[in-house]
Amino acid sequence: MFDFFVLFFTIISWYYIFLPDFKASSLDTKLKSKCYILTIHLFIVWFAFYLPYSLSNQIVLLTLLFCSLSDVYDQSIYPVVLIPAILIGLLDYRAVSIDYCIGLVTFIALLICIYFEKMGLGDALIYLIIGLNFSFENANYILITACFILLSCQLTHSKVKHPFVPYLLVSFLLVRLLIP
Predict the structure, then answer these.
(1) How far is CA 45 from CA 13, 16, 28, 37, 83, in A?
(2) Interval 105-120 mean pLDDT
(3) Is the Cβ–Cβ distance between 126 and 156 less than 8 Å?
(4) Cα(51)–Cα(57) distance, rounded to whole angstroms?
């Protein structure tokens, strides 16, 4: 029942973004044709049903994919997309352990980075979602891997400003493949 509940809210929140009548004006210029929306829906269906992960992993992965695409194009993240991943993390009960305490200390360090404008709020929300859904230990591995990937890209293209969420997506895929 929990998986159905989460899947239902995931589909509603993602469909809200692509619904023509309720779209924000900034999205109207991005999604003009029906063919573009159809390819996105086909890609979502392929991505959701052919990956060998559980439903919660697929929802978090799709959330990361949507956030990385919006971060690349708009340098912003739509909060509606984050709702299903936050629900999964909050409704999945785990006992508080040292892993969560270390992750919360890391998240407070990220909030300090946000305060000094070294990192965006969307990046920290993505980190929190990964930490809630998996473990903060895996989230720290993902964050460190994303930083190394970004540093390697910064060395080759030093004058280009890179959004951070696509690197989080790539590192999420790498870490989830290496650490099952």
Answers:
(1) 15, 16, 23, 12, 19
(2) 71
(3) no
(4) 9
Cα end-to-end span (Å), the chain = 25
**Per-range mean pLDDT, top range of 18-22, 53-57, 106-110, 126-130:** 126-130
Cα distances (Å, whole numbers) of residue 16 to 13, 21, 27, 165? 5, 9, 11, 21
Element (H, E) at 180: none
More confident residue, 36 or 55: 55
Distance CA 163, CA 97 (A): 32
| CB-CB neighbours of 60 under 10 Å | 24
**Rg of the chain in Å (alpha carbons):** 17
The amino acid present at 60, given as its one-letter code, is: V
Q: What share of the chain is helix, strand, coil (3-state, %, to 5)?
A: 75, 0, 25
Q: In the chain, where are the structural domains located? A: 2-178
pTM above 0.70, yes or no: no
Is the predicted pLDDT of residue 17 greater than 70, yes or no?
no
